[in-house]
Amino acid sequence: MSKELQRSGSIPGLRLASLATFLLLPTLTGATFRTKNFVVEAPTAATARAVGERAERERLAIARAWLGKELPAWSKPCPIRVKVTQGNAGGVTSFGFENGRVSDQEMSVEGRLDRILVSALPHEITHTVFAAYFGEPMPRWADEGASLLSEDAFELHRHDLIIRQVLGRRADLPLGRLFQMTEYPSDLMAFYGQGYSISKFLIEMGGRPRFLAFVRDGGRKGWDDATRVHYGLTNVRELDRAWHAWHTVLARGDRTTVGRDADGAVVRAQSEDEEPVARR
Fold this sequence. Notes:
It is a single chain. The chain has 280 residues and is of the alpha/beta class. It is built from 9 helices and 8 strands. The chain has 2 domains: 4-138, no CATH class; 142-268, no CATH class. The chain has helices at residues 45-67, 113-134, 140-148, 153-168, 175-178, 188-206, 208-221, 223-231, 236-252; strands at residues 4-10, 31-34, 38-42, 78-84, 90-98, 101-111, 257-260, 266-268.
């Protein structure tokens, strides 16, 4: 069977940089640290160890949060290349898929080490958990949007602000179009912000297992059908309206409810002074 390729990543700060930028990282000549599932190349031994140990902890925690269980050990470790700078953190992970499984994967992260550990690395590790679960490329909006939920409170708040700005200038895409996208658009920040927001909304409405089932069924059977089955809404257009209504409630700072899940439960809109419910 032919091999499928996918590249996923986190974006550094507020820059609209292409993810391909991270493929241009120079070959590192520093230290290497090996764990059960990762082999880290970094400028110093301390940095390599910090990234490797954090990667293992994140892999365990993120798999448990999303799948309810640990992932089995990979047959070969995932390489992580680390470039420490004074800038914001970002990264990219490339995958090969063959016969419904990940055939190879590699990761690059860069930025300040403290931001790599709490932002870029959890984001990229989430991509690896999704890749292992689906065994094929995940829809772009869901892969990036849901991976953002693994980042720290600073990044979650930043993307809450971004999606408010996107909606304020009416730059959001209809969900029917967003769900079909296979490539990154030119307005990368808007794309990430909207993917993050709709992922957060769906998880609040029905939890993580339902979200994963929705994404899988949407890609295979159609998004209208998946919306009816998993969220009790007529189609993607109605889901789009419910998501916009949820944001309207958030903008007012209310604690009222909007929408319903597939079991008839109401969806609670979260006010700005609450902890994000989608955090690990």
